[in-house]
Design a protein that fits this description.
single chain, alpha/beta, eight-stranded parallel β-barrel, globular
């Protein structure tokens, strides 16, 4: 049945939804790449809350979505920016999310890594590097006690407090020396979080890269890998080639991930991606094809998804979470389109319409009829009645 979808100019266009789902079966872990999906959280739609109140989470639906990802062989990157860290998910709730997800991972044999940050600390003029270290240590202890691998996330407090590259070297060196197991270092660019401008001590990305590599070179035995989220494929490849032996590069480039995962004759990137939340089953199928050595087949499956990813991650990029949750609702992974912090309002109806159209064209909805009905209800809520 025809849907009428609004475009950026406000006019409606006719769209005929897909009628048959794409068949994508669950499967085991991958052999050629380590792949994590950063996963969103499902809000409790019945909670009486406000945008600046502590997050209210539907734990059953949130954990069910993680089981969905694990069933397709994907690892889960927990409590990352996709889960709205710093954009609605407060640290006490994030800590609970880490504990619950790590226990669930242990129960089902799923791979998990969890974000360690400093978001319980709001930097002021009096904040010191010691304060930042203490905040990091508190979160590192929670993740290590849960049994999950740690992802040292970029810190707004450190970005506000550090004055020189040496300050980053001191803080990260301190954390790596005490980490019980090798960690993943995360470089999140300012397009994802403007407060991280000048991270690693310089707005000059070449200088920042040198500092980042200096941290790794000083502690290669404590670094499992790096996640790079700069949306710059050339820079990621150059950085990848400069890593010490045994340190993985996990692409966080939601614009260029197929080519970076496929790699070249000098290496490849593993993956830790927010776009693999809505793409989970299709991404898993593509990586299993890559496991057979069929790079062309991998690209044939994954290249067509880039248009959707670039749409969801368009500027302001930090609001990509809204499109991710929209698609989870349309796909039937949750019963509502509500987000912690009220972030469901962060994108426009034309943005939602295009996301639906692209996802439907890719066959991402297990039940296309349900997705159509839900999209029709959303359109009606905004006043589109035909």
């Amino acid at each position: 049945m025809t849907l009428h979808l609004p475009g950026p100019d406000g006019t409606l266009r006719a769209y005929e939804p897909r009628t048959e789902p794409r068949t994508l079966s669950p499967g085991g872990v991958f052999t050629s790449r380590t792949v994590f999906s950063a996963a969103h959280v499902v809000a409790d739609p019945y909670a009486d809350t406000t945008p600046d109140a502590p997050a209210a989470v539907d734990w059953d639906a949130t954990l069910a979505f993680r089981r969905h990802l694990w069933s397709h062989g994907l690892g889960v990157a927990e409590a990352m920016d996709t889960a709205q860290r710093g954009m609605g998910l407060d640290w006490p709730t994030a800590a609970e999310l880490i504990r619950r997800s790590a226990a669930e991972a242990k129960a089902v044999g799923g791979r998990i890594a969890c974000g360690v940050g400093t978001d319980q600390l709001t930097a002021t003029a009096g904040t010191t590097l010691a304060d930042v270290r203490t905040a990091y240590e508190e979160q590192l202890a929670v993740v290590e006690e849960s049994g999950a691998r740690s992802i040292l996330m970029a810190s707004r407090a450190l970005a506000a407090t550090a004055r020189t590259p040496d300050d980053y070297l001191e803080v990260y060196g301190h954390l790596l020396r005490q980490a019980a197991e090798p960690v993943i270092l995360h470089w999140l660019g300012p397009m994802f979080d403007p407060a991280l401008e000048g991270y690693w001590g310089s707005a000059d990305l070449d200088a920042a890269t040198d500092t980042f590599l200096e941290v790794i070179a000083a502690h290669p035995d404590k670094v499992d890998g790096i996640k790079v989220s700069l949306l710059d494929a050339r820079r990621e490849v150059d950085l990848r080639r400069r890593l010490p032996q045994g340190v993985r590069c996990y692409t966080g480039d939601d614009f260029n991930y197929p080519e970076l995962i496929a790699g070249d004759d000098q290496g490849f990137s593993h993956a830790l991606l927010g776009i693999f939340d809505p793409l989970g089953p299709l991404a898993a199928e593509a990586v299993r094809v890559l496991d057979t050595g069929d790079t062309d087949g991998f690209r044939a499956l994954l290249d067509p998804t880039v248009e959707l990813s670039r749409h969801l991650f368009q500027a302001p990029t930090r609001y990509y979470k809204t499109g991710v949750v929209l698609l989870a609702w349309l796909a039937g992974h949750q019963s509502h389109f509500t987000m912690v912090g009220g972030l469901q309002s962060a994108r426009s109806l034309p943005h939602f319409a295009r996301a639906y159209e692209l996802a439907d064209g890719l066959g991402l909805f297990p039940d296309p009829k349900l997705a159509e009905e839900r999209m029709r209800n959303l359109l009606a809520l905004y006043g589109v009645n035909r």
